[in-house]
Amino acid sequence: MGSILDAPLIFSIDSSTQIPLLGAIHFGIVDRGTNLLQIRPTTLCNMNCVFCSTDAGPFSNIHLKHTLVDPSYLLSWVSRVCSFKGDGLIAHIDGVGDPGTYPWLFELISGISSLNSFEEVALQTNGNMLSEPQISRLAQAGLSKIHLSIHGLDTPQTKYLMGMPGYDISRILRLCEHIVSSGISLWLNPVYLPGINEKGVEDVLIFARRIGASVGLQRYNIHRYGRKASCKPQSLWKFRQQLRQWECRFSLRLLHAPHDTGIVRRPSFPIVFQRGEKVYANIVGPGWFSRQMIGVCRNRAITIENCSNVIGDLVRVKITSTKHGIYLAELS
Ligand code: SF4
């Protein structure tokens, strides 16, 4: 294991912990009832974006513990879920942090590609931790698509938006060109902050068209635990109007339907609890927020809120949410 796992704020999950990799939102596998599986190996992020919906990054005040999942253990669970979901799957490696920080990205992508259940292996990242040689290696390992967060081209503004004085947009732009030349499909994903980065988004659209990248624009929204940018979110209607205008002006497709991305409905991995049900769970680790702990029951991870119990305790909980196979509970 690398030294990052020895850091006191890292909670490591491997086969020795036997923590199920289904059920939590911040690690493991999330199956929302389509052919796309979200694969979440880490909660770490190296940026501190002013609009981050999960308040991730090194300056976060609310995420004091980070989770890292061992790649072999994660692959064993991915394989288990694939045997239920079938073929033609999309692996979407993302997270509440940035998977570019994951020390075993190459091993994870090689392992996923070798399963033969996936027709696409995609990575969501800010690109900051990736180098050109790494991109070439990841392409050879089977990485077929990168969704890259980039919110403008202007140096001072991008440093401000990413919340990091060391952020180097010119390096990221060179990386984008290298991604395209490596044969990986590149999607640029700017967050549009009305009144802040119109010009930045337009620069990204021109850049995308020049290098042959696609664009998936994201609407800024306020999230309960996210950081708030100094602008008001647009309604969906207004946002789509803006996309239509930009589509005409820049001759780029910006309004995408789910089938454009190959996502189709598919039965979900079985939900094993009912909302309101009371069960006993073993406490096995910390949650993503303080005052959350992870409990295990019926081979699923359950996030128990307002919980001050410690690892090893057996607690009785009431399941409060089962949406998308993500289990939340409270002490009962
Ligand atoms: S928006 Fe993405 S890159 Fe920025 S801090 Fe959040 S997780 Fe990290």
Question: Would you kindly provide a written description of the structure presented here, covering whatever features stand out?
Answer:
The N terminus is likely disordered. This protein has 2 domains: 259 residues, Alpha-Beta Barrel (TIM Barrel); 54 residues, Beta Barrel (OB fold (Dihydrolipoamide Acetyltransferase, E2P)), CATH 2.40.50. With 332 residues, the chain is an alpha/beta fold. The strands form 4 sheets. A 7-stranded mixed sheet has the order 2-3-5-6-7-8-10, covered by helices on one side. Strands 12-13-14-16-15 form a 5-stranded mixed beta barrel. Strands 1-4 form a two-stranded parallel ribbon. It is built from 7 helices and 16 strands. Helices cover 26% and strands 23% of the residues. Bound molecules: iron/sulfur cluster. Iron/sulfur cluster (SF4) binds next to loops.
How are the elements arranged and paired?
Elements: E1 10-13, E2 28-31, E3 36-40, E4 66-69, H1 71-85, E5 89-93, H2 105-114, E6 118-125, H3 132-141, E7 145-148, H4 155-162, H5 169-181, E8 185-188, E9 191-192, H6 198-211, E10 214-215, E11 218-219, H7 236-250, E12 278-286, E13 292-297, E14 300-305, E15 314-321, E16 328-331
Parallel strand pairs: 1-4, 3-5, 5-6, 6-7, 7-8, 8-10, 9-11, 14-16
Antiparallel strand pairs: 2-3, 12-13, 12-15, 13-14, 15-16
Helix pairs in contact: 1-2, 2-3
